[in-house]
Amino acid sequence: MAGVPLWLYTTAGCHLCARLEATLQALGADVTLTRVEIAFDAQLSERYATRIPVLASATGAEYSLADGEEVLPKWLRAQGVEMTPQAERDSATEPQGPSLRNGRRFLR
Length: 108
Hints:
alpha+beta, 32% helix, elongated
């Protein structure tokens, strides 16, 4: 299942953009992210140069780090994004211990 489409307005070398992407991953946000480079478009540069990173949804709703990182989960939910907490993701991938069946030991 593909995640909710979001657009990330960014530019090369943007450390805040990398931080936002890491935050999305840490939240377990089920999104399909399209990166939009603003440097080569005068209108995008004018609109986003002092605000990047900016996430935009298909409805036109926008989120910027200037809004505060604590707002991001609420904004994502409002866009229909499902999030899986880190603990749930970790337990789903945790290796299982050995089991005994008919006197034989099996690894899971």
